[in-house]
Amino acid sequence: MDREDLLGAGAPGEEQKKSPLLSLEKDLRFYMESIKEVAVEIMVEGISAHPVFVAHQHQVNLGEMILDKEELNTEWTIHASTLEEFIEKGVIDPKRKEQFLKSYKKPEDFMCLFVIVPEGANFVYYPYKA
What we know:
By secondary structure, the protein is an alpha+beta fold. It has one domain (3-7, 20-127). The chain contains five helices and five strands; from the N terminus they run ααββαβααββ. The chain has a five-stranded mixed beta sheet. The longest helix is centred in the first third of the chain and has 23 residues, at 22-44.
């Protein structure tokens, strides 16, 4: 899923539904430097070559909270995690690891987000220079 999918960009002439995820893009712009810092730290410390950030508005038991919407007066909370934790907790089937890695974008340029909304969850890649 790319940025356009996240924001609900439809075909030209198609009626646009205002995505509740527009608030996520606003928060990501605000969080961008902090998220990139944590991604670099995860990679430099050898924790993982594949950082994954969990964006949610409710309680989630995945990763460690790094940005709290309550403290920061924003709409989304962000947790830092890794591909390895996603496999360990069964979010990604070990058999699908290679498929995931093929779609995983360069972590120096894109944050890998696992966005959780009431309708479900999906991976989204958001550029650090949006």
